Amino acid sequence: MESILLDINDDDEMAKLLAVVLYDEESSLRGYLQITDHELVTAIVAHYARGVSFKEIVLKGEPELKGVVLKKRVALLEARAIVEMRRLKMELRGVLGELLEKRE
Q1: Residue 104: Cβ-neighbour burial (10 angstroms; 0-12, 13-18, 19+)
Q2: Which one of 7, 23, 35, 55 has the fewest CB atoms closer than 10 angstroms to its CB?
């Protein structure tokens, strides 16, 4: 097994690792995460890994939306994604911490 240098207290490093883990559905680390909203995770991967805007994601599911309603849905999706990313990063930190303790 290869060693990977990772500072689990560095938010940017954790965000990058989380993006890889979420993007790669076969990742062994993904199985440790509690993913309850698969649709939200799909939107997170589309936005953060593929560069799709939240507006495009909302319009794909509801192409008829316009104006204020569209803006509200986009803002809601973005807020939910931020909260979910924060939760998943914390969870991933915990998992990595436990795995490190087992190795030592």
Answers
A1: exposed
A2: 7
